[in-house]
Each structure stands twice: as C-alpha cells, then as structure tokens.
Amino acid sequence: MSEQNTKVAEPVIEAPAGHTTSKANPLQNLLKGPAGRSLGLVIALALLFVVGAVTSGDRFLNFENMLTIFRYASIIGVISIGVTFVITAGGIDLSVGSVLGLTTVIASLTSVQMAATQSSWILMVLVALAVGVVAGLINGVVIAYGNVVAFIATLAMLVGARGLAELISGRSTQIVTNRDFLRVMRAEVLGVPLLIWIFVIVAIAGWFLLNRTTFGRRTIAIGGNLEAARLAGIKVKRHLVYLYVLAGLAAGIAGVMMLGRTTAGTSTHGLLYELDAIAAVVVGGTLLIGGRGTIMGTVLGVLIFSTLTNVFTQNNLDTSVQALAKGLIIVVAVLLQQRFAARGPRKREKPGLRKAA
Amino acid sequence: MFEEDQPRPLLEVRGLTKGFAGVQALKGVDLQVLPGEVHCVMGQNGAGKSTLIKTLSGVHQPDSGEIRWEGKPITLPRPTAALDLGIATMYQELDVVDGLSVAENIFLGHERATGGVLHVKKANAIARTLLKRLGHGGLSPSTEVGTLSAANKQIVSMARALSRDTRLIIMDEPSAILDSGEVSNLFRVVRELTAQGIAVVYISHRLEEIRQIGDRISVIKDGRSTANGLNVTDTPKSELIRLMTGRDVENVFPERKPVPVDAPVVLEVDNLELFGHFDKVSFTVRAGEILGFAGLVGSKRSEILETIYGARKASSGKVSVQGKVLRPGSVTSAVNAGIGLSPEERKSQGLILDEPIFKNVTLSTFERFARGGYLNESAERGAAREQITALELRPADPDRPARTLSGGNQQKILLARWLVHGTPVLLLDEPTRGVDVGARAEIYALIRKLAAAGTAIIVVSSEIEEVLGLADNVLVIDDGKVLTQTKASDIDEHGVLDLVMKGSAA
Ligand SMILES: Nc1ncnc2c1ncn2[C@@H]1O[C@H](COP(=O)(O)OP(=O)(O)OP(=O)(O)O)[C@@H](O)[C@H]1O
Ligand SMILES: [Mg+2]
Q1: For burial by CB atoms within 10 Å, which of A18, A255, B126, B188 has the most?
Q2: Span B11-245: which CATH code?
C-alpha cells in the first residue's frame, strides 16, 4: 500500500515547494533582499549629497570635505559595527560610549604612557583594547550567566564605566604625550587618514565575520530563534559572552582612534555614542528584535548621519535642528523598512494577534 | 520481527522520572528501541511523550532513572551530547530559524566550515542532495525558511536530522501538520532510514498511521509506562485506546442531524478572491450547519478563512454575516459581526504563552468579565474552568502558564476561547491538530453541539476523514480553486483524493 501511496503523492509533494517562490514583481523582490534594503539607504545618502552640493557647492563637494565626513563617521562607525552583532543576536549594548571613555582614560594614564615610552606605543593600544574586552566580558557574563536583561546589565555598565573613568582621571583631561603613538595615529595611507582605514578594515572584517563564518551564522540564529539555536547544539550562553566582548573590543578600538584624533583621554569621550550607534544600526536595517543584521546597512547608516551633520555645519544650522532631522530620519527609515517587510508573501498575517489588539 | 534473534537494543530507558515545578511529568518510563525499527510512543495529551524525548535529546535532565546507549549507561547534559551520539530530534514545535536559509538551518550548529569560515556552496550542494533524498528536490537550499509553509519547514527539520551521522531519529508528532500526500512521503523516508539500520521513535495521535509505519509500540499514561514494545500487528486499536486512556472510546464522530431546511443563512461568501492565493469562492453556511473544507496542505484553505476573518484583505468579492456586509480587510468588522477564528498555528498566532490558561481562554471576551474597567478574574477563571472540564484540558488548573502545557492541550485552549465567545460564526482551522483520540471525540461532540445550538461553522482539516465525518457539506479545494461542493455523505476519502489529483493534473 505504501508504494501506491508514494506514487500518488509525487506530484503533490512538488506543489508546496513550488509555492514558496514568491510571485511578486522582480523590483519588489530586489527591494526586499539585502541589496534592496541597502539600495534605499544609498538613495537616501545620495539625496543628502545632492542637498549638500546644492546648498554649499564646492565647499561640500571636495575631497577634503569627503574625508571630513568619513573621519567623522569612523569612530562611531567602529562602535556601530560591534553593536550590530549584539543587536543581530537580539541583545543590546548601551555601554559602548562610556566604555570608550574609560578606555581613553586608562590608556592615557601617566603610568601607561611612561611604560609605553619605555617600550612601544603599541602598549597604549593594547591597554585600551584590553579595557574594552574586560568591560564586554563583564557585560556578557552578567547577561548570559547571571540572566540579567541586557538592557539593564549594559545600562549599569554605562553608568559604572563613566563613573570609574571620572574617578581615575579625577575629571581632568589627560594629554597624550607619546610621540610615536600620535605619529602613527596621524599617518596617512594613499592620502587617506589612518582613522578612516581602521573604519574600513573593521567594516570589512565585520562583514566577513557576520556573513561568512560560523560565528556570524550562529549570531543570526540566536537572534532569530533562541530556542532553536539551543536545540541545534549551539552554546548560546558562551556565544552571548563572545558577542559582548566583541562590542567591548570595538569600543576599545574606537577609544584608540579617539585618543589619536583628540590627543587626549577624558571621561567625557563617547558621551551618548551608544544612542548614535543604535540609531545607525537600526536605520541600516538590522532588526532590533534580532535575527537579521547587515554590516553594509550599518556603514551606510553611519555615513548618512555624518553627512547630515556635515551638511548642517556647512550651512551654519543650529545643532537642535540637526537633532530634529536625525529623529525624523530614524522614524522614516524604520517605517519604510516595515512597509517593505510587510509587503509580499514573506510575512504572514497573524489574525490572533491582530484580534487581540 | 526482532523477537527471534533479539538484537541488542540501541537505546534503553529504565525508570525515568522528571518533575517540573508543580507537575510530575514522568513517573517511571521504560523504553527499548532496537536498531532499524520504528518504535511508536503513544499516550494522551500531557502523558509525557515530549518530556520523555526531551530527556533523550539532552534538553531536560531526568530526576532519576537510567539511559543506556548500546548497553552503556550515559548522561545527556546538553543537546550536543545527544547529537554527538547520533540521536537527532524533530521537535513538536518547529525549531527552525526563519531568518536563515534552508541550507543554513540544516547545518545550524554543525556548519560546513574550515577554521570558522563557511563553505556556502558546499553546504548548499549537500543540502540539495538531502532534500532530494527526502523527495523535495524542488526546495531550493537558499530559500529563506521564513517564507516556507509549515510542512516544508518540517522537511528542513528532517533534513537537519539527516545531515548528521544519525543512528536514532526522534520525531515528535511530525504528521500533525502534514496532509495525506505529505505523510506518505514521510513514511517513504522513514522506511528508507530503517532499511539502513537507523532507528526511529515516532510519536503521533493518529492510530492508522501507527498501524502503517510502526513496528512496535510503547504506551505512556500519566507519566508512567503502561505497555512496552507491543507488536503493532497483534495489538488491536481498542486495546491501544484502553492502554492510553484507561477506558473505551467508541464512535468517534457524533451523529449528524440534518440541518433544518428553514434554517437562515448566517454566513454568505460571494465571489471572494485574493490575488495570488485563491480564485472566486462562493458559498453559504446556514445556522446549525457545519461546512468542511477538504484539500491538501497548501491548498489555500487557511487563506480563505483568514480572508473571511479580515486578516487578509480580499482583492474582490464580499462576505456578509446575517445580511450585513463586512468591510474587507478589517478584523474588527468581522469580530463585531460575530465571526470567530481559531487559527492553525497556535504558538505564533493564538497564544500568549506566559499568561495563565484562563487569560488565554478569555482573551477575546474579557470585556464581558469587567465592570467599569475592573476585571473580575474569578468569573474569568470560572468560565475557563468550565471549558477545561469540557475539553479535558490537563492539567486542569486555570492559573498554569500556557507555555508549560503539552502541545495538544495548548490547542484546546484556543478552541476553548471561541467556545466561551459563543459567536454565531465559527471558523476552525485544524481544530484537532495534535489532540489525542479521547479528547478528539470530545471536541467533535462539542462542535456538533455548537452547531445544534445554531452556530454556523467552517472546519478546515488536513485529515479528510475528519472533514467528512464532522461536516454536513464539503468544499473540495485545491490550489485556491473550489473543485466541488457536495454533501459530506455523498463523497468518501478516495473521492476527494481523486478530485484533487485530477485538479492538480489539469
Ligand atoms: N516546561 C514545563 N514546565 C512545567 N510543566 C511542564 C513543562 N513541560 C511539560 N510540562 C507538563 O508535563 C506534562 C507532560 O507534558 P508533555 O509535553 O510531555 O506531554 P505530551 O505527552 O507530549 O502531550 P501532547 O500529546 O499534547 O504533545 C504536562 O502536564 C505538561 O503540562
Ligand atoms: Mg508533546
């Protein structure tokens, strides 16, 4: 009887599989894919460029100014890439800004700088990275093994790290005196400042890590369906720790860049960067609830905000207007994303939920 | 068939117990699985089947008892421990990640990679072979799983089980979301696996399936083994039901009384259409009538229900309830007119998992239990308790969070919600998915009783037998087209299947 059934069933089996290919028009399909989501951002960025070119002309459209935009984007960009991983896994890290501040303070302590002078400028870099990693490690362990909600755990780190930075520095600004460090950080490669190169390298590495490695794959899985990830044998807790360490490491790298750019360490470095980073990540198309992340989107999100700032500054507009514009961009971007996501067959309606509303 | 030479069992479980806060889910379970056999585990909803398999797959830790693998005692402290031994599990609740592709899901947790760097092409190629072996060569490895039907998600789940070096596959109610064609494909795969010496533990509430695919049966009742390794061939159905329920269940389908000729039409669907899903559909349901939608999974029956309910916006056509035309795409309009829908996917569409049973039951009616905005919870509990008794919901405690209930009992909560509601039109999508034999008969009787009281009901089920046994009239639907409309007594299962086969051939 089984054989008979199998034969009968054959054409039927193919049917449901066939249904899965969507019948939406090609443009819509393109827009729904990762390329399409980035395309929207590219268009937004292009529009900003047009506005900049129209309002400021050559003052905006020149190589120097482009470098300014990228330089401005680089530090927040590196932080945002770390945060992209955490958010993709369904978490959140509010502490990156103050961890950045802490890394600049500790790396520019007189004792550290003296030791660096005797050995190598690299020591300052290593100290900053180590501070970031340790802060991330604490976040990760508290969240994964202490079962503290990420929002709360990293909020505590936000407050705590800033406080510690103030204590250590005595709220004073610590000037970087190590000449080697400054020379390296001010270096240019092919006419482009090192800060920008660091951003580019971190972005490429981040893209590779998220899209081409088991680590990235597992990150997406944890954000998409934590239970399924656990059942598939992924060590979810350990992975969460790695993710927060990664975000801390990114904050450490950003700290080094900050030290290089400002030639000083202070507890106020990185103030509110966590919010800028989250805004860039979300505008870029990474889902705040996790399960989908895009490094490309984050990079574009960061560039959109830094270009916006640049255009506003060029036109001598108030920073309050700028903040207002930022807020609008965030809302519009997320609304647009939801429209794309809701369209087509991929999101099924949920009658039960709608009923409850 | 294994009795003569008695091969060494692959897996042996003895005296397994497991308690959760407030519930003793397993009180002493034994199980012996031989290599290459299909071992069926049966029991009522909440008997402890899923809990048992979760202790065997390293998700739960047993409180006491012994697990042996090829004669050696083992512990399974985490899922990877079971996977490494070669125990793969397809869980009752679909365990796939929507945002990842088919191939990415298949290799989740054991990705094809060198030094952490993925081999995307290689993984896709292996995935394609696996899918072909499962009879689903048409499923592309790069498709995003979130876009797949539940049945196809299950195929992904099975491909994942096969992607490892597996020696025992545990399937927890795999057929609950499959239609008969899909089920025979599943059975073909299962036979292929057992021919290679892989053992299968198979859980299902459908007794006919057990008869078709099973070699031996073990029965659990209230967390305790009541039978071990019975031969399928010499255990009659009635005996099985008695072992599971402790009583006899006869006449599953209640008697059908003819719908009075003068009964008013309650629901009228006129040329309803949803582009890309279904073509013009027209029918009426009278007070006291049960209309069944028969067809295969993917035939868009659920979509028709959801469009009537306003959760999807019709491209054209209209729906009216008691003469009042509904606003297309408006759930509010449908609910106000008196339509209730019990959806197909309970976890994602219907339940608030962390809320207690009673709040889930009164989710669409809680206003009734309020005075000036103040909710009378004890009245809510009372209403829920009535349904709990009527549907044999276990545990019978209205305060227990929905999450901690067994799969079949979660299904009953959804049904209870609309029974409390008492709407004039009730749309039931797979009302008995995952529900055990005993409770099934109760649910059928309840649906009949509602109809007798004047409710107009539409029932969608992948079990054609269920549609034909329960409904007065039947629409046979295939790929969004109504093939026939007929009296349920004028057609049988073969008739429906013939129609569908012809329909899809055309
Ligand atoms: N995580 C949990 N917390 C508390 N109780 C639980 C939990 N999981 C299961 N239970 C309880 O354990 C008992 C057995 O549940 P289990 O899911 O094993 O039943 P089942 O036999 O698989 O039923 P079904 O056929 O409905 O799927 C039930 O009473 C259930 O409520
Ligand atoms: Mg179960």
Answers
A1: A255
A2: 3.40.50.300
